[in-house]
């Protein structure tokens, strides 16, 4: 009995290499029935949400949008920018790894995608949810 600690590192604000993501998801899947997990990064938003989102997609077949929406209800601000796109890009892969019957569909879909870095995600700037605009007129500084 006690706490098992698993540490995986990748840069804050970035998307994980697939090997790192698989390590985290595998550790979550390996939990004995009835045991809990805590996933955290520096702020508990980006990297945490990316790993939890991948797990939700693989284990429970959430869509990326459903996983992000659910996590943002639980903790506002989770998974922003390139990490949103990364989760969307790996959605089919996570479904295929969770359910072998989806593997062929994923292989057909993923021929020209590169989800081992954020490069593909960064190229999709038009669908990134932008932050709200600053107030007009600007608020005076204290």
UniProtKB/TrEMBL annotation:
EC id: 3.1.3.48
Key word Hydrolase present: yes
Residue stretches making up the Tyrosine-protein phosphatase domain: 1-99
Superkingdom to which the source organism belongs: Eukaryota
Region Disordered, annotated ranges: 122-142
Alphabetically ordered keywords of this record: Hydrolase, Protein phosphatase
Protein family according to the UniProt entry: Belongs to the protein-tyrosine phosphatase family. Non-receptor class CDC14 subfamily.
Name of the protein: protein-tyrosine-phosphatase
Organism in which the protein naturally occurs: Trieres chinensis
Lineage: Eukaryota, Sar, Stramenopiles, Ochrophyta, Bacillariophyta
């Amino acid at each position: 009995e006690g706490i098992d600690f698993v540490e995986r590192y990748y840069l804050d604000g970035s998307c994980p290499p697939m090997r790192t993501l698989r390590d985290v998801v595998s550790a979550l899947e390996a939990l004995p029935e009835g045991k809990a997990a805590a996933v955290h990064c520096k702020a508990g938003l980006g990297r945490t949400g990316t790993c939890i989102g991948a797990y939700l997609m693989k284990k429970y077949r959430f869509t990326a949008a459903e996983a992000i929406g659910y996590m943002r209800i639980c903790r506002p601000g989770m998974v922003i920018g390139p990490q949103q796109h990364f989760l969307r890009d790996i959605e089919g892969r996570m479904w295929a790894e969770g359910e072998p019957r989806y593997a062929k569909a994923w292989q057909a879909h993923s021929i020209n995608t590169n989800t081992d870095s954020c490069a593909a995600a960064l190229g999709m700037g038009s669908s990134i949810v932008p932050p709200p605009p600053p107030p007009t007129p600007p608020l005076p500084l204290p």
